[in-house]
């Protein structure tokens, strides 16, 4: 009797030991599987970004790199009027693009999530195809449309509606906004769609049963619950568009130049890498701060709607 | 209430159609003018021709750039999917300490402007005295492709029944054999889809390649170079139209394959 009790006790102990071991080995195996990817991403992503940060605190004299710590590059980046104007314009353009793109995408995502029943898959494919196709070509299409002899001008002229090409279409900030809003449209739809799709439909039914109208239901249930998707979409658009290079280069003209264009020049023709690194770091820092602040502000604002 | 809902539905449907038009019509001007018999890209259309396609195809530079893009795309797709597969398995199947942080880190390229990824890798390669080549382009593309590969593979792995793997382990199969005979066939559509989509991301990328290719030319870099010459535009349109067509086919294939077996019915396990 005593021996069997000891046996079961022993078994229990060893069982606990095995579970503990399994749990430990589970995380060990997980880490082992993640290992190669993490090593590559640290080498090809974290290390370069670290070096970029380091460069921004160095300086360049002619062809030689001076690795003494200095804040000169940041002083220059913030004090020169032309750089400040570029920061300001980049942030302004991508803010407008973000708001426009999210506002346009929301009803579209809402339609697919709540109104489409059988052909959801087809709608989702139609909306994701542009997401995966050449960004360069989508931007180029707008140069073709807005150009001096482009689709709009030549179309209106052959219809006899105008007699000379409209010059204000291409090479200005508005052209950049329109092109970016089109090029990034697909990025907004998916996150918003996913958060709308997750909403428990019985909540809406309950609200309807308790007498809430469509507007109240939307404001008190749908909108707050889809907020993570909206904010995700906004961040996914705002952050990369601030640093967009292709669009301002192709349709921006001299008045539509953005910060990425000057960064490219620093790494190409002028060859002042530390200053280019500082401009890149500064713009990412500004984008980061603005993103955090506005996400918090929007969360608070929507939380107040009751 | 019902009628109201239906009226909303119609309004939203009309909006959705306009939205699709906004997404697609601008891009459709590329194929339209690529068949136009004029060097000027303007209305009225002057006549049908396929000469731009013939010219484009006869161009050695185009063929060379295409070959480079195919090589880079294939390599980037293979490497990023091979890296994404174990990572996605770890993140969906095991409780890994710090897993969410690592996933966030790996997804970072989605939130960093491409120009920053390009210049920072350029600095690193320059510091390490690694010469720029197609291989350095592949390295750059892998960093942007890995998040996509992991996302696609994780969604696939979350989509099927975990008990199938457990059953295999309970029946005495080893971890490796379980992966090979149960997990792999179930995840295969996700793998194919991840390969196709990461290939597309690499094939279409201009900016990272622009910084990391050195003297090599990929297709987007070639196109970029041609945009300065107005008389070259028609052939660029032809090239662009072809790229768009192939991309559409690949994306549709990728999304269709990815959805195999996860919509409504249980996945079929291959022997």
Tags for this entry?
A: 306 residues, mainly alpha, MetI-like fold, 2 domains, two-stranded antiparallel sheet, 13 helices, 2 strands, B: 271 residues, 74% helix, 0% strand, globular
Which percent band covers the strand fraction of chain A? under 5%
Which architecture name of the largest domain in chain A does CATH use? Orthogonal Bundle
The residue fraction in helices of chain B comes out at over 70%
Number of domain units of chain A: 2
Biggest sheet details of chain A = 2 strands, antiparallel
Low-confidence stretches of chain A: none
The CATH superfamily of chain B bears the name MetI-like
Structural class of chain B: mainly alpha
Let me know the number of strands of chain A: 2
CATH class of the largest domain in chain A: Mainly Alpha
**Strands in their spatial order, largest beta sheet of chain A:** 1-2
CATH superfamily of the largest domain in chain A: MetI-like
Short description:
With 306 residues, chain A is an all-alpha fold. Chain A has helices at residues 2-56, 72-79, 81-115, 120-132, 135-146, 151-158, 173-183, 185-198, 201-209, 214-242, 246-252, 259-267, 273-304; strands at 59-61, 64-66. Chain B is 74% helix and 0% strand.
Descriptive notes:
- Chain A has 306 residues and is an all-alpha fold.
- Chain A has two domains: 2-56; 72-304, MetI-like fold (Orthogonal Bundle), CATH 1.10.3720.10.
- Chain A contains 13 helices and two strands, in the order αββαααααααααααα.
- Chain A has helices at 2-56, 72-79, 81-115, 120-132, 135-146, 151-158, 173-183, 185-198, 201-209, 214-242, 246-252, 259-267, 273-304; strands spanning 59-61, 64-66.
- In chain A, helix 2 packs across helix 13, helix 7 crosses helix 11 (246-252) and helix 12 runs antiparallel to helix 13.
- Chain A starts with a helix and ends with a helix.
- Chain B has 271 residues and is mostly helical.
- Chain B has one domain (45-259): Orthogonal Bundle (MetI-like fold).
- Chain B has helices at 2-34, 51-58, 60-93, 99-106, 114-127, 134-158, 163-170, 175-204, 207-212, 219-226, 233-259.
- In chain B, helix 3 packs parallel to helix 6 (134-158), helix 3 (60-93) runs antiparallel to helix 8 and helix 6 (134-158) packs across helix 8.
- The longest helix of chain B is centred in the first third of the chain and has 34 residues, at 60-93.
- Chain B is globular.
- The model of chain B is unreliable at 263-271 (pLDDT under 50).
- Classes of the chains: A mainly alpha (306), B mainly alpha (271).
- Chains A and B meet through helix 1, helix 3, helix 4, helix 5 and helix 6 of A and helix 1, helix 3, helix 4, helix 5 and helix 6 of B.
């Amino acid at each position: 009797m005593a021996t069997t009790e000891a046996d079961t006790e022993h078994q229990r102990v060893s069982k606990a030991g095995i579970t503990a071991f399994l749990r430990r080995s589970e995380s060990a195996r997980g880490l082992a599987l993640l290992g190669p990817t993490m090593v590559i991403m640290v080498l090809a992503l974290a290390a370069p970004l670290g070096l970029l940060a380091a460069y921004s605190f160095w300086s360049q004299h002619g062809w030689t790199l001076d690795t003494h710590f200095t804040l000169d590059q940041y002083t220059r980046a913030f004090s020169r009027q032309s750089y400040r104007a570029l920061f300001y314009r980049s942030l302004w353009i991508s803010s407008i693009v973000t708001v426009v793109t999210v506002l346009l995408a929301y009803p579209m995502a809402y339609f697919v999530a709540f109104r489409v029943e059988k052909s959801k898959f087809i709608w989702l494919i139609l909306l994701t195809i542009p997401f995966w196709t050449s960004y360069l070509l989508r931007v180029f299409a707008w140069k073709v449309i807005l150009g001096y002899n482009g689709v709009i001008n030549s179309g209106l002229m052959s219809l006899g509606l105008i007699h000379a090409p409209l010059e204000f279409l291409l090479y200005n900030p508005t052209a950049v906004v329109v092109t970016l809003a089109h090029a990034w449209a697909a990025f907004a739809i998916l996150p918003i769609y996913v958060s709308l799709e997750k909403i428990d439909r019985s909540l809406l039914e309950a609200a309807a049963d308790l007498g809430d109208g469509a507007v109240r239901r939307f404001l008190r249930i749908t909108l707050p619950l889809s907020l993570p998707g909206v904010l995700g979409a906004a961040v996914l658009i705002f952050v990369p568009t601030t640093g967009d290079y292709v669009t301002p280069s192709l349709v921006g003209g001299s008045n539509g130049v953005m910060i990425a264009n000057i960064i490219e020049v620093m790494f190409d023709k002028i060859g002042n890498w530390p200053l280019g690194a500082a401009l890149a770091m500064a713009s990412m820092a500004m984008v980061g701060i603005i993103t955090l602040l506005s996400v918090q502000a929007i969360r608070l604002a929507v939380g107040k709607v009751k | 209430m019902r009628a109201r809902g239906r009226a909303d539905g119609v309004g939203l449907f009309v909006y959705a159609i306009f939205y699709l038009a906004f997404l697609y019509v601008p891009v459709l001007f590329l194929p339209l003018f690529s068949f136009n018999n004029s060097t000027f890209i303007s209305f009225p259309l002057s006549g049908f021709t396929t000469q731009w396609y013939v010219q484009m195809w006869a161009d050695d530079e185009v063929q060379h750039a295409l070959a480079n893009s195919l090589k880079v795309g294939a390599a980037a797709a293979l490497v990023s999917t091979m890296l994404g597969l174990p990572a996605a398995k770890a993140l969906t199947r095991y409780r890994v300490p710090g897993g969410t942080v690592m996933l966030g880190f790996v997804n970072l390229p989605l939130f960093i402007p491409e120009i920053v990824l390009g210049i920072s890798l350029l600095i690193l390669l320059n510091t390490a005295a690694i010469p720029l080549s197609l291989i350095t382009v592949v390295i750059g593309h892998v960093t942007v492709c890995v998040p996509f590969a992991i996302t696609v593979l994780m969604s696939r792995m979350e989509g099927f029944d975990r008990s199938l793997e457990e059953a295999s382990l309970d029946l005495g199969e080893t971890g490796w054999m379980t992966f090979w005979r149960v997990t792999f066939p179930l995840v295969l559509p996700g793998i194919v889809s991840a390969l196709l989509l990461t290939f597309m991301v690499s094939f279409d990328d201009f900016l990272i390649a622009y910084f990391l290719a050195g003297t090599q030319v990929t297709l987007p870099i070639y196109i970029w170079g041609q945009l300065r010459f107005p008389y070259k535009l028609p052939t660029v349109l032809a090239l662009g139209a072809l790229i768009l067509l192939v991309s559409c086919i690949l994306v549709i294939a990728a999304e269709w394959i990815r959805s195999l077996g996860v919509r409504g019915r249980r996945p079929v396990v291959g022997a």
